[in-house]
Write a structure and sequence with these properties.
The chain is of the alpha/beta class. Among the domains are: 4-90, Translation factors (Elongation Factor Tu (Ef-tu), domain 3, Beta Barrel), CATH 2.40.30.10; 101-211, Rossmann fold (3-Layer(aba) Sandwich). The protein is built from nine helices and 15 strands. The chain has helices at residues 22-27, 69-75, 111-123, 143-149, 169-177, 191-201, 237-240, 251-258, 262-285, and strands spanning 4-11, 14-20, 33-37, 45-54, 59-65, 85-90, 101-107, 127-134, 152-157, 164-165, 184-188, 208-211, 227-230, 233-236, 243-245. The strands form three sheets. Strands 10-9-8-7-11-12-15 form a seven-stranded mixed beta sheet, with helices on both faces. The chain has a six-stranded antiparallel beta sheet with strand order 1-2-5-4-3-6, with helices on both faces. A two-stranded antiparallel sheet has the order 13-14. A hairpin with a 2-residue loop joins strand 1 (4-11) and strand 2. The longest helix is centred in the C-terminal third of the chain and has 24 residues, at 262-285. The two termini are 33 Å apart. Bound molecules: flavin-adenine dinucleotide (FAD), FE2/S2 (inorganic) cluster and magnesium ion. FE2/S2 (inorganic) cluster (FES) binds at residues 216-219, 221-226, 236, 238.
Length: 287
């Protein structure tokens, strides 16, 4: 169980892994995630979205960016290696129905969780407009997969190296200014991007859902790590989400909580990179 069947590098630090997990593949729905624990001795638990699943092969696809200790360790695993624990599918699935025109906005690694959602809205008979953004062309992922789904695909890069130069909020605002306006927007990416997508659609009263990426530990509603304020209520992203009405989310508080362990995370990342470099050098010098 949980054997890595296929590993592909999508960009400098983004990896795709197809992992054997037949029960999860059977059950999962767009919008859901798994909690991954590489090893149960000292491995921390991290949430990753189920980007795709193949019930016939009995596999799920994870797409992740190596940003810190655990994702760097995950990226170092090879085909044939096993992930010790995989818990899921967790979270509420995306509510998908025929709404008319749905705009799907993905920033950076957020394009990975957006993919099954865009696919679901297309299959439900919606016109799907996809806006993808990245800092530069090299960091764009899943362009061909998104192009295959989209009725219209708009690509933005911060430096103008591909597609439009600028932020995803610019084409989003233009679409909201048109008549008819989009019926629904779903935005997934860095918290700051989701916040400004919600602020862009708010004056046009276009319903906008976001998928929150808070810190998670158990993923089952018990630790409180993923607590967010939505409207006047406290919610747990792992069991009440991960999707919420973007117009009601307190993004500033969420971003503050996400930075809580920054010093420890930086130290762990540096130590992990050093360990991996030493291991690499040792393997090169061994006869
Ligand atoms: P660290 O250096 O420990 O942390 C880097 C940053 O990641 C932190 O500053 C914090 O913002 C966040 N983070 C740290 N620990 C956790 C944690 N236990 N849970 C959540 N966030 C954490 N990333 C992907 O690349 N692909 C995905 O498909 C994806 N799906 C996600 C789905 C959900 C529901 C959530 C909540 C997050 C998702 N993430 C995804 C983010 C991913 O979980 C973090 O990048 C990962 O936990 C970082 O761990 P690390 O040890 O490598 O980095
Ligand atoms: Fe523990 Fe949500 S991750 S309550
Ligand atoms: Mg970590």
């Amino acid at each position: 169980m949980n054997t890595i069947l296929k590993k592909t590098q999508l960009s400098d630090d983004v990896f795709l892994m197809r992992v054997a997990a037949p029960l999860i593949a059977e059950e999962r729905k767009p919008g859901q995630f798994v909690i991954v624990q590489i090893d149960s001795n000292f491995g921390e638990r991290i949430p990753l979205t189920i980007a795709d699943a193949d019930p016939q092969e009995g596999s799920i696809t994870l797409i992740f960016q190596a940003v810190g200790k655990t994702t760097l360790r995950l990226a170092a695993l090879k085909e044939g290696d096993r992930i010790e624990n995989l818990l899921g599918p967790l979270g509420r699935p995306t509510h998908i129905e025929k709404l008319g025109t749905v705009v799907c906005v993905g920033g950076g690694i957020g394009v990975a969780p957006l993919h099954p959602i865009a696919q679901g809205f297309k299959q439900a008979g919606n016109k799907v407009i996809i806006i993808m953004g990245a800092r530069n062309q090299k960091l764009l992922i899943l362009e061909q997969e998104m192009r295959a789904i989209a009725d219209e695909l708009i690509i933005c890069t911060d430096d103008g190296s591909y597609g439009r130069k600028g932020l995803v909020t610019e084409p989003l605002k233009e679409l909201c200014q048109q008549e008819p306006k989009p019926d629904f927007v779903v935005a997934i990416g860095p918290p700051i991007m989701m916040k400004f997508c919600a602020e862009t659609t708010r004056p046009f009263a276009v319903p906008t859902f976001v998928s929150l990426n808070t810190i998670m530990v158990d993923g089952t509603g018990m630790c409180g790590g993923c607590r967010v304020t939505v409207g006047a209520e406290t919610k747990f992203v792992c069991v009440d989400g991960p999707e919420f009405d973007g117009h009601k989310v307190d993004f500033d508080n969420m971003m503050k909580r996400l930075r809580s362990y920054k010093t420890l995370e930086d130290q762990a990342r540096h130590a992990c990179k050093l360990e991996q470099e030493i291991a690499q050098k040792q393997s090169e010098t061994q006869p």
